[in-house]
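Thread: adenosine monophosphate complex, take 2
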Amino acid sequence: MYTSVLVINCGSSSIKYALVSERREDRIFGLAENLGSPEARIKGITTGGEALEISMPNADHEKALEIILERISHHNPQAIGHRVVHGGTLTKAELLTPEIIDRIREATPLAPLHNPAHLVGITATMRLFPELPQVAVFDTAFHQTMPAHAYRYALPKFLYTMHNVRRYGFHGTSHAYVSERGSELAGSFKQGGWLTAHLGNGSSTCAIWNGQSVDTSMGLTPLEGVVMGTRSGDVDPSIHRFLASNLGWDIYKIDKMLNNESGLLGLSDLSNDMRTLIEASEQGNEDATLAIEVFCYRLAKSLAALSCGLPQLNGLFFTGGIGENSAFIREKTVSYLPHFGFNLSKEKNDGLKRGTEGRIDVGNGPQIWVVPTDEEGRIAKETQSVVEQGVSAAVKKSDVVEEAVA
Ligand code: AMP
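Output below.
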């Protein structure tokens, strides 16, 4: 029914956009960056595949969105899908109404950097394109199927009941897409037990049973879980008291250190970029070697722990910049899971081309697949389905009214 959906992901000074065609085959995409500064600009790829760069000094989100929409309006987008990091306890994508916007605002204390930026983008697109249906697709929604024993922290009950302190999980759009696509490739669409490892600058793992998330590594915020580019993942929470008492650090300095100065960057003292670390390790840099080792070991530990949520294990999907591109990291991670019966095929693993999907085990144990993620495609699909449901609900309502009048 819909020809194309504009997918928007607003950060505090950037907007990623993608125009996704109905069958999700054609894309126009780009990035507006440095918003609010003299260096504000849009970089992108046109339909003809040419590079595009537009300088727009001091442009804010609204101005950037105006320019983006001007450039793509002849493609006639029929709806806008917004990526929203935190939806609190919302369980699915929602048409943007004043009530849903309030729910996104209420979740701001749980995602203080992300949700305000999304709201700026939502407000701007609603003002600019009041006639287009707009949908919010939440990173947290897919994980709302987790059972209480997976999402509750062992903390005083009132922190959960009165202040919503619980595990939410993130990267839900990616875990949902990859597990759906991967299980389809494996011939058991949305059936059985699967583990996903989304490994990028931010990384997380997820356990999926019959198409539903039953546990995931990220928690109240995206800091919990595995080692990431600059985020520490799990640490002993007493590190806060230790650093405050011994180094006089305040809570903000500690939080910044854990989110921005830790992970691969902190361990290696060199880079948050896995490619740089692999190269440095090959040249004998011991800190880079250790960072890679900690990354893979802790990732394997997380996968092993999450497997407790699955009655049976069909296999493992790798995705994200690292998971899709690094045969070395996949092999090392699987080597830390010796009791699971995984049999990685070195030939298939090493031979998998960049950006392609494929099976990389020898075939006599739990399966191992690489499935490139497609968050924009998934957001477009969910947006399309919410809009279509809204239209069919409206049609049904008018049928009822007509029958009542007749
Ligand atoms: P993402 O956040 O999903 O874009 O992933 C970014 C991460 O993927 C960075 O750490 C990159 O170094 C890593 N990456 C991309 N290509 C490769 C590669 N060929 N080998 C190892 N890491 C890679």
